[in-house]
Amino acid sequence: MQGTAVPKRRSTTLCIATGLSLSAALLEAVALSTPCWIEADRRIYNNKFDKLGLLVFCFRSFTDPKRRYPQYFVSCRWFFDFEWKYMYDVLAPPFFRSVQIAFGIGFILLLGSLGQIVLLWLRSIPTKHETSLLFILSFTHAATAFWFFLAFTIFGARSSDPSWLPGWQNNYLSWSFGLSVVGGIQLFISSVLYFVEAKRHLERAIATTEEQLMASIVVPPTTVPLPPRKILRQSHDVQQSLV
């Protein structure tokens, strides 16, 4: 079976899906790298906490609430900083590590999806495999959106935990968290659009295959047998003409 003919110009559905994918990737990258998932109300001057992200913590004057270490932490620090290691039980409770893991899985899947999009737009795969790639893109985008939704749902539900950050009454979800939510919604929409485009390619492939099969069928000429009476009459006429 020959490959399905695909139009040279990409459809509007595919263009919108790709645009949403790229926009979501940018939003999630910014959300991951910025320390503004939670911020403290800046009108409260004695708040020890400033802001945090998934990878960066910022404090104004923070000490170990369990009073094990007298050191004060000021300004922003990388989450995996060596000086944080004995504070992980305070700064990163189990739910926060679950958020980091879920977001990390989603981000890895998102990077893989971007590679698939590059293959699709550069036509680096045989045309007959583009339908399968579109279905894979739809699935990976749905899986990516699921992990991101899981991450920011857990984070949003536990962000005001009194046992976690100091001054929790004056803390609020900030714009980095919002970017992550918007990116997850865009990924879900693009997943639906990739599925619609894949179904369209599949229907086109089926129609093309049916046309090729119909064109390849050669109907042999058939002779319709004459009824017996007609045959006898014709033979009688032949005999009369001979006489």
From TrEMBL:
Keywords: Membrane, Signal, Transmembrane, Transmembrane helix. It is found in: Membrane. Its main location: membrane. It holds the Pfam family Claudin_2. The keyword Zinc-finger does not apply. One of its GO terms (cellular component) is membrane. The chain crosses the membrane at residues 101-122, 134-155, 175-196. It comes from the Eukaryota. Residues 1-31 form the signal peptide. It is a multi-pass membrane protein. PANTHER family: EG:80H7.2 PROTEIN (PTHR21284), SINUOUS (PTHR21284:SF6). This is Uncharacterized protein. It comes from Hypsibius exemplaris. The lineage of its organism: Eukaryota, Metazoa, Ecdysozoa, Tardigrada, Eutardigrada.
